[in-house]
Design goal:
This protein is α/β, with parallel strands linked by helices and about 290 residues long. Helices cover about 25% and strands about 30% of the residues. A hairpin with a 2-residue loop joins strand 3 and strand 4.
Length: about 290
Amino acid sequence: MSDQIAASELIINERGSIYHLDVHPDELATDIITVGDPDRVGQVSDHFDRIEFKRQHREFVTHTGYIGTKRLSVVSTGIGTDNIDIVLNELDALVNIDFKSRKVNAKPVQLNIVRIGTSGSLQKDIPVDSFLVSTHGLGIDNLLNFYDNQPSRTELDMLEAFAVQTKLSTKVSAPYISACSPDLLKQFDQGFHKGITVTCPGFYGPQGRVLRLGLSNPGFIDSLTHFNYEGNIISNFEMETAGLYGLGKLMGHHLLSLNAIMANRITGEFSKDGKGTMDSLISKTLEILTRA
C-alpha cells in the first residue's frame, strides 16, 4: 500500500501552495502567531521591521517577516474550531509533508504557535482589559473527538469532574481537554492571569447569552465559574483555544493561547477600549517572543 497522500486529501494549488491558506512551504516561519480577525494580521505585522510575504485567501490572511533576525508568520484563522481544524492541519502540512512526493517527511518539524485573541472572563477578579494565558483548553465543541486522541488519566479525571460539576448533557458535547506548551508558558509568567479556558461552538447560546432564544442549561455559566478541580479553575471562555491545544498536542507542536479580556460575564462589563487593549497585548507578546 502506498503511503502517498491522495490529491483529494492534500489539496495543492497551481502555484504549489496549500489549499485554504494559499501559502507555499517556503513562505511560512516556524514561529507563528494566530489571530481570529483577518484585520488583526496587519495590526501585528505593523510591528515588523520587514515584511517579505503577504497572502490572502477567503478569511485566511498570512504575513511573514522579521523583527530583527527573528522570522515570524502571522495567520488569521477566522472564528471557531472548524477553522482551527483547517489552519492547524495546513500549517502542519506545510512543514511536515513533501508537496512533490506527497509523503510525510521522515523528520518532523515542531512549530511554535501563539494565539492572540479576545475572550470573556468567568471570574470577578479577572477584569476587563487584563491579559490571560490559558493553561488548558477544555473543548465543548467536539472537534478533537473526530481524531484518535488518547486522554491521560489526569485529563480523564478533570473531564469527569467537569461533567459532574457542570451537568453538561452528553447530547450537547463530549468534552476534551489539553494543556498548553510548558516551554511557552514559562515565557509568559509576568502580567498574565492563568486558568482553564473553555472553548465553545458558538458565541450566543453556547456561551449562555440570551437574546430571543431560551437555553437548554440556564445555569451553565454559573457552573463554569464555580468549577474547581484540585485548585484549577475555569477562568474564561472563547471559541478556538481547545482546538489549537488538542491538535497541537497530537501533531507535536508547541501551542499557547493568550487572551485579551474584553468582557466580564460576572460583572456584566465590556471593554471601552478593545483596540487599545489588543495593541498592548500584541506589543507585549512580540517583545517576549523576540527577546535575545
